[in-house]
Structure formats: C-alpha cells, structure tokens
Amino acid sequence: MSNERGKIKGHVVAELRGPDGELKARCETDNLITDTGDIFYGSRAIAGINTNGVSAAAQPSGMQIGTGSTAVAKSGAGAAMVTYLIGQAFDSTFPTGADVAGSGYTATYKTTYAAGTGTTASAITEACIVTGTVTTAGTTSTTIARVLLTGIASKGASDTLTVTWTHTLLGS
Question: pLDDT tens digits, residue range 76-110?
Fold first, then answer.
C-alpha cells in the first residue's frame, strides 16, 4: 500500500521599485495556505461532479497588503489580514495556471500597487489573497493565503509594489 501525500506549496515574491524602476527592496518567502484556501482548492476539484452536494468555494478576487506582524496561521488569529492598509484586484491577466509536467499544477496570482496606491510611512509586512471585497480587511472565511513579508520598506507615493504568489498543487 502506498502512502500518498499531496500538498499545496505556496511561494511569494514581493518587489518594491522606485519611480526610476530601480529595485529598492525584495522579499521572497513561502506562504501559508489557510484552512479556507484548502477548502477553496478542494471544493473546486469535486463540486458538481455528481449529486455530492459540494458547492465550489468563492473565487479569489484580489490581494491585500498591511502592516501587521501576527504570526501566520491555518485558522484563527493569523489566518487573515491583521492591520489592513489597502487591497485591490489582481492584475488584468491574472491569475494564470500552468501544468508543470511531473511537478504539479501552478496557479499564479499577481497584483501591482502602482505609484500613488498604498502609500504608507510604515513597512509593508503582510499580504493576503482574499475572496469577496478587497477594499476592507478580509476575515478567516475569505482569506485563502497569508504571508509575512520582511525587508519591504515604506512604499513612497512614487514607488510601485508588485506581489506575485505561486501556489503549486503537488501529488505524491
């Protein structure tokens, strides 16, 4: 008997660029798929196949960034935005998907906070992918993934912040 263990691996790259396009800060780290994210991916796989009664969970609608530092968690405190700064929809051609033969399926989400958006005097330390509205802080029931960011200094009015998430669904 085999011991199959699939998983969803999350990875985030955040880049802060100045008005001249020069890279000011970069954070690359793994993120946590929340319990709501597990339900999102799982329910989409089996919803409506037969009379199983499973409904597909709501689609992600965008990202939020904030200044909180609560540890990331699968559920409860840390499974949603802690200190909301701003949220917005994904970039126009995202999310995307790709079959990476032999290495799973990759879903990529990207949001660019252009000059003039999300300006803050504080470091940007957290980000979430959410369902529903992005203009108010998400809750645990609307957050499919959350990450803590390090090294992303305050975003000036002329700076651009790009946050790219990759969720890879892996079989055994």
Answer: 989 999 999 999 999 999 999 999 877 789 999 99
| Cis before 60? omega within 30 | no
Backbone angles phi, psi at 42, to 5 degrees: -65, -45
Residue 57: DSSP 8-state:
P
Q: Residue 93, Cβ neighbours under 10 Å: how many?
A: 8
Q: Which of 13, 35, 39, 33 is nearest to 25 (CA)?
A: 13
Domain that holds residue 113: 23-47+57-170
What does the alpha-carbon distance between residue 146 and residue 46 come to, in Å, rounded to a whole number?
A: 24
The answer as to whether 52 is a domain residue is no
Within-domain flag for 159: yes
Question: Is residue 139 included in any domain, yes or no?
Answer: yes
